[in-house]
Amino acid sequence: MVHGNGRPAPGLRPSSIFQLVTAALRGVPVGISGMGIGRDWIYSEDIAAGVTHLATIDRLPYDLFNLSTGTAVTLKDIADVVKRLVPEAAIQEVRSHRADVALSRRDARSPLDVTRLREAGFTAATGLEDGVARYVEWLRTEGTFVLRP
After folding, report:
1. How far apart (Å, rounded) are the C-alpha atoms in residues 131 and 127?
2. Distance between CA 57 and CA 116 in Å, rounded?
3. Each residue of 72-124: pLDDT tens digit?
4. What is the pLDDT of residues 35-67, one digit of tens each?
5. Please, how many CA atoms are within 13 Å of residue 137, restricted to the half-sphere of its CB?
6. Phi and psi of 58, rounded to 5°?
7. pLDDT tens digits for 3-35?
8. Is position 5 within any domain?
């Protein structure tokens, strides 16, 4: 849940991508830990496209689908992409007790099985680099309200 100001509601932890990108664009140094922890990320437009696809095909072959990419992406992968896209980003690995963004083993998620989704004719089209690049561009042009401290 995000408030109208683009900031997460109290008690909710914003995504690692949100935290790293906004810190980078604000020029705020950020320490991270859990570099090898992976999760299955999907770009928001791919979610919309997947829902639209499933809602408009003639017959659903299954009652339940995992709408995702089926690929694990580590916190290091995300940090590397953010550093490439925002060269002035001050992201460095630190011990977990000093981290601004931390993932632990309990945050790890195996990639979702997207076999059913692919059988229904849909595959997420946006890779990590492209998705983060689009997000960075959106924040720079349309989402400046999110970047205000």
Report:
1. 6
2. 14
3. 999 999 999 999 999 999 999 999 999 999 999 998 889 999 999 999 999 99
4. 999 999 999 999 999 999 999 999 999 999 999
5. 6
6. -60, -45
7. 444 445 566 778 999 999 999 999 999 999 999
8. no
CATH classification at residue 109:
3.90.25.10
- Look up residue 15 and give its DSSP letter: P
Token code pair at residue 43: 């770009």
Q: Give the Å distances, CA to CA, from 86 to 37, 62, 133, 148.
A: 22, 41, 9, 17
The neighbour count for residue 9, using CB atoms within 10 Å, is 9
Structural domain harbouring 73: 16-142
What is the rounded distance in angstroms from the CA atom of residue 19 to the CA atom of residue 9? Answer: 14
